[in-house]
Write a structure and sequence with these properties.
5-stranded mixed beta sheet, about 15% strand, about 30% helix, alpha/beta
């Protein structure tokens, strides 16, 4: 995208022409100003994505980590299957937890239906530090159909790619790897957390991976800092 020759967002907003029943002039004026900001946000998201795709080669993955999947033991390199890119989500459901993280669970519930689409483009693995039987039992309880779950009971991958906190507890992690000409490298990983959070806001990455928050952000109530999803209601 040639950002130097884009039509100004305010001009595009003025051309929009959308009106809703009984809206006031004050509402329309404020809405058009907001629309211009939404256009700028979309453009910024794309600029960040372009910058991410242009990253130089990341660190080579020299260990062929081992996991347990539904078909038995599987190596890290085998997780790629026939794809050149692998997305790995580290699920907070390790040995210190009686139940999995509700926030991770909410995210993965939203992803479950998208897995067949994701797998047209990339390989996907959801890794947790619990025995596979425990993961599969919760998958059945939650009604997931497509999420590919893998157990990392050796903790080696989870330790190297920031899915274990300093106190040994679980931490969520989102990492992307590439395999080019036989060499596996780390491409990108989420690094936004507590130290990068803005005052008064819950630590989160951007763009947000959870559709839940995208929907709530469009409402007058917003995210509500005192509310989190639960495993059941």
């Amino acid at each position: 995208m040639d950002h130097q020759h884009l039509v100004p967002a305010a001009v595009l907003a003025a051309k929009n022409g959308v009106r809703f029943p009984n809206e006031s002039e004050a509402y329309r004026s404020a809405r058009d100003a907001l629309l211009a900001e939404e256009i700028e946000l979309r453009r910024h998201i794309e600029r960040v994505a372009v910058q991410r795709r242009a990253l130089p080669p990341g660190g080579e993955v020299k260990k062929d980590y081992r996991f347990e999947g539904v078909d038995g033991p599987i190596s890290f390199s085998e997780l790629f299957a026939d794809k050149e890119t692998l997305v790995v989500y580290s699920y907070m459901f390790g040995p210190q937890r009686e139940r999995p993280c509700p926030m991770c669970t909410s995210l993965l519930s939203a992803w479950d239906g998208e897995v067949p689409d994701m797998q047209q483009r990339v390989a996907l693995a959801v890794v947790a530090r619990s025995p596979l039987e425990r993961l599969l039992a919760f998958k059945k309880e939650r009604g997931w159909h497509h999420l590919p779950l893998f157990s990392d009971t050796a903790d080696e991958y989870s330790s190297d790619y920031h899915a274990i906190g300093k106190d040994g507890s679980d931490d969520a992690a989102f990492n992307v790897f590439t395999r080019r000409e036989g060499t596996i490298r780390h491409f990108w990983g989420g690094e936004m957390g507590g130290v990068t959070a803005d005052p008064g806001e819950d630590p989160r990455g951007a763009p947000d991976l959870m559709p839940l928050w995208t929907v709530l952000d469009s409402t007058p109530e917003g995210r509500a800092p005192d509310w989190y999803p639960k495993l059941s209601y």
